[in-house]
Amino acid sequence: MVLESISRIIKVQLPAYLKKLPLPETIGGFARLTVSEWLRLLPLLGILALLGYLTIRPFLPKKKKQRDSLINLKIQKENPKVVNEIDIEDLNSANVCYCRCWRSKTVNSLCAKY
């Protein structure tokens, strides 16, 4: 039953649909189509656009993976949050904070007043 329906669509209904389409013979003929004729062409144009997209999709650039947007790529990856604790008594001044630059793998100290 299902195969009979598919066969009828391909052999009978699709050719009848294609015969009724208002396909102009020249490019200028598209400019003279009415709105109702464009609406009858819309399903065919949509299918052709989808097939074109599916054909060129493998050649389109890939989206960046989430790993590319991470800042910390190597340091203590097993920890969900990397925190270094320093005793305040060990510092020479109370107005010092530390900043780690994850990309360059260096530790820079920044002075700031709180």
How would you summarize this macromolecular structure in one to three sentences?
With 114 residues, the chain is an alpha+beta fold.
Helices and strands in order:
Elements: H1 2-20, H2 35-56, E1 96-101, E2 106-111
Antiparallel strand pairs: 1-2
Please indicate the count of domains: 2
Instruction: Tell me, briefly, the overall form.
Output: elongated
Poorly predicted parts: 110-114
User: What is the β-strand count?
Assistant: 2
Can you summarize the main beta sheet?
A: 2 strands, antiparallel
- Regarding quaternary structure, how should these chains be classified? single chain
The radius of gyration over CA amounts to: 33 Å
Strands of the biggest beta sheet: in what spatial order?
1-2
How helix-rich are the residues, as a percent range? 25-40%
Order of SSEs: HHEE
Q: Report strand %.
A: 5-15%
Transmembrane segments: 38-56
Pfam family, one: MitoNEET_N
GO cellular component, one term: mitochondrial outer membrane
GO molecular function: 2 iron, 2 sulfur cluster binding
3D structure, described in words:
This protein is of the alpha+beta class and 114 residues long. It folds into two domains: 2-59, no CATH class; 66-111, no CATH class. 36% of the residues lie in helices and 11% in strands. It contains two helices and two strands; from the N terminus they run H-H-E-E. The chain has helices spanning 2-20, 35-56; strands at residues 96-101, 106-111. It has a two-stranded antiparallel ribbon. Strand 1 and strand 2 form a beta hairpin. The protein is elongated and about 90 Å long.
